[in-house]
Here is the input.
Amino acid sequence: MKKAVAIIAEYNPFHKGHAYQIQQAKLQTGADFVIILMSGDFVQRGTPAILSKHQRTSMALLGGADIVFELPSYYACGSAEYFSSGAVSILNAFRSIDFLCFGSESGTIDTCRFLGELLANEPNLYKEKLRNHLKNGLSFPVARKSALSEYLKEKNIPFNENFLDTPNNILGIEYCKSLSTQNSSILPITIKRIGNPYHETTFTSAYPSASAIRKELISSSNIQKSFSDVLKDAQPPAVKNYLYSLLEKDPFLTENDFSMLLKYELMKNTSESLSTFSDMSSDLARRIYHHLNAFKTFSQFAEQLKTKELTYTRICRAMLHVLLNISTDLPTTSPVYVRLLGFKKESSAFLRTLQKNSTIPILTKAADYRKILPKEAQFLFEKDLFASNLYETVKCNKKPAAFTNDLQKPPVIL
Here is the structure.
């Protein structure tokens, strides 16, 4: 029986650390296939991906992945809890995944599993402490860290508070929480992150972060020099060569490329109607509405709206949901489809196994979605279509090119 390990990713963009994780995931689990569930054209921090989902799929396959599926936009652009629960529910629906591998700063699975199960059950004492910290005006991440630390201290359970200061550890806990909540048979494993930290934007390591690579690509006035000097060892050779081949025809996108579209959508709303969008609190909705005259760009406005309770990323996610028309009445953890983005030819037999075993439809040809998906799933898939076609529209406007509808884009096959 063939074994599969899954990785939930953004690859924004793909780099050597990602290739290392894929290699180690196979090595440590003995899996025959690495299945990637990847965000589409918009990512969890509330911004567009620097490159399109099909381009990033090509990078993933060149970097060692076997099959790539798209994480629907209403999960991919959500909070860490929503992101992880949606992704894990899709992996469960495949009924063919043995392991879930994620990177972490700690490299230890026991703490992630322990905290994940604790948060899945939410003891009353912890919930009480969390409520108190939220009432006192702390942001949710800070309130949760404080509540957990206090709960574990009172229970005399040894705990390093710094564990909750790093993004991959936090996401790892959410994955374990989702696996526990959903009674999943998938086993979590973690690979210690090597090289620069997640948010590091300098090239001080042989394994730079995606943040550093994005910054270099976007800010460089001489991409050719960047590739020969700064980026020369940042990606596996095949991935680097592919990315370099894109440069003449495709621009990179940032949140500020969507500024005027976002302002238009914000202007159409009142503070009450803004509150109906996902991740949008009534307080944030009021702040947006009353400060809209100060809007200049997506990033500038998000920075201006920040408060002690509202983080920059939370604000970006909320405004992105307005842009993509993702409201609070969308589903929570029950997936109704998944789309194939690409695969290696030698993995086609296992892809057929996934299609046979899956409890949800796997879209291999997007144009057939009305024939394959039930009505509810069609509505949700059209959210993805809108997001990708909006992305494509902005990209074609930034560097004039022919528009290609997302329905016309086939899976990448290597």
The CA atoms of residues 37 and 219 lie 29 Å apart.
